[in-house]
Amino acid sequence: MHDLHSHSARSDGYLLPADLVAQAAEQGVITLALTDHDTIDGLVEASESAQHAGIELVAGVEISVTWGNCTLHIVGLAFDRMNDTLVQGLADLQAIRAKRAESIGAKLAKLGVENAHERAQALAGDGQIGRVHFARVLIEAGVCRDMQHAFKHYLKPGRNGFVRVNWAGLEQAIDWIHAAGGLAVLAHPLGYHFSANWRRKMVAAFVEAGGDAMEICTGTTTTDDISRMGRVAAAYGLYGSLGSDFHSPEQHWLALGRVAPLPSYLTPIWQAPSFSPMTPGCPHSRQ
């Protein structure tokens, strides 16, 4: 069982990298990619845990991209985590994230949520601050009842707590991944709520920029979704990828390893010649 999209507490996930790997092993996952947002800080800890758990860990990251005034996510897989080009690119995104967090904190302070930035940092711990941490601050402050309420009324585009930034360019992000010897995957293509026409433009732009694969199966895709996007991936000659997009055990519908299989007519990304794990797992794990 493969799960090539998951998040730890190093970005907006709940579990520490070692605990994430342990839980994945318990769920029967044999190949796991840790794909935190714009950071690879959890890979060493996850790799050590994977060695003990006997599963393959694939180096991963989910890069934030600005395209057509919209934010896309490009997952990088099976890359050299020491590559200077990728490391510097992610460092630049971390700087953008840090400034955004300060701005969100300032906006929420004006709305009466005191020390929002400091409280979000405390929740993030050693990880980076994301909007999910500000959502938790709003909940703890009694301003919002849950995550959905916090994002809908404060943290989504157009709301008083939202701060728009320019992330990496699409071609730029793919170049970083390729420079590190990795494969670039268009994450959850149906998750951006684009029209069919705009989605076609997105996929075409991704392919033109050198993208390698498309995420076909996630924790929320339906059979019809998989069929539709599988045909698109096949038409463009893209590898198929899959992943739960796990963040927290509370989101039981995004459980680790709970992903439908890829359509048989697509070549799985783990069969790409350059795909290799950073931590080899059990002897049966490549079957």
Question: Can you offer a commentary on this structure?
Answer:
Strands 1, 2, 3, 4, 5, 6, 7 and 8 form an 8-stranded mixed β-sheet that branches. This protein is 39% helix and 14% strand. It has 2 domains: 2-88 and 167-286, Metal-dependent hydrolases (TIM Barrel); 91-155, DNA polymerase, domain 1. Residues 282-287 have low confidence and may be disordered. It is built from 9 helices and 8 strands. The longest helix is centred in the middle third of the chain and has 27 residues, at 84-110.
The CATH superfamily of the largest domain is identified as Metal-dependent hydrolases
Indicate the mean pLDDT: 92
Question: Uncertain runs with pLDDT below 50, 5 residues or more?
Answer: 282-287
Strand segment tally = 8
**What is the terminal separation in angstroms?**
9 Å
Give the radius of gyration.
18 Å
Q: What percent of the residues sit in helical stretches (DSSP H or I)?
A: 25-40%
Q: Would you tell me the structural class of the helices and strands?
A: alpha/beta
Report the portion of residues in β strands: 5-15%
- What does the main sheet amount to? 8 strands, mixed
At the third CATH level, what is the topology name of the largest domain?
Answer: TIM Barrel
Number of helices: 9
Oligomer: single chain
Number of domains: 2
Give the overall shape. globular
Broad CATH class of the largest domain: Alpha Beta
Per CATH, the architecture of the largest domain is Alpha-Beta Barrel
Taken in chain order, the helices and strands follow as: EHEHEEHHHHEHEHEHE
